[in-house]
Amino acid sequence: MQRVEFHYTPKHGSWLNMAEIEISMFQRGCLSRRMDCLDTLRRRINTLELKRNRERRTISWQFTSRDAREKLHNVYPDITS
């Protein structure tokens, strides 16, 4: 954990927000309990990953670039051709 550095992203942080959600799922699913060895950690992570893939767990990102331009017009300017 000494080499891990966490960067929290804004609410509408696009793909960074999705990555944070996935990391959170693993933290709650298998990293919140103490483990006695690295093999146990790897086994728990692999188990959770297989389960999430089998269940086709995905993130439905609904904040479009159009939404960004409307709500965050000072950050995402309207680009006209």
Sequence-ordered SSE layout with sheet pairings:
Layout: H1 15-31, H2 38-54, H3 65-71
Helix pairs in contact: 1-2
Domain Tc1-like transposase DDE: 2-42
Organism: Ktedonobacter robiniae
Protein name: Tc1-like transposase DDE domain-containing protein
Keywords:
mainly alpha, Tc1-like_DDE_dom, 81 residues, single chain, elongated, Tc1-like transposase DDE domain-containing protein
Explain this structure to me?
This protein is mainly α. The chain has one domain. Helices cover 51% and strands 0% of the residues. The protein contains 3 helices and no strands. Helix 1 packs across helix 2. The termini are far apart. The mean pLDDT is 80.
Provide a quick synopsis of the model.
The chain has helices spanning 15-31, 38-54, 65-71. It is mainly alpha-helical.
Low-confidence stretches: none
List SSEs in N-to-C order: HHH
Enumerate how many helices there are, as a single number.
3
- How would the global form be characterised? elongated
Radius of gyration: 17 Å
Q: Which secondary-structure class do the elements indicate?
A: mainly alpha
Described by strand count, sense and barrel closure, the largest sheet is:
none
The average pLDDT value, as a whole number, equals 80
Number of domains: 1
Q: Give the percentage of residues in beta strands.
A: under 5%
* End-to-end C-alpha gap: 47 Å
Fraction of residues in H or I helices: 40-55%
Overall number of strands: 0
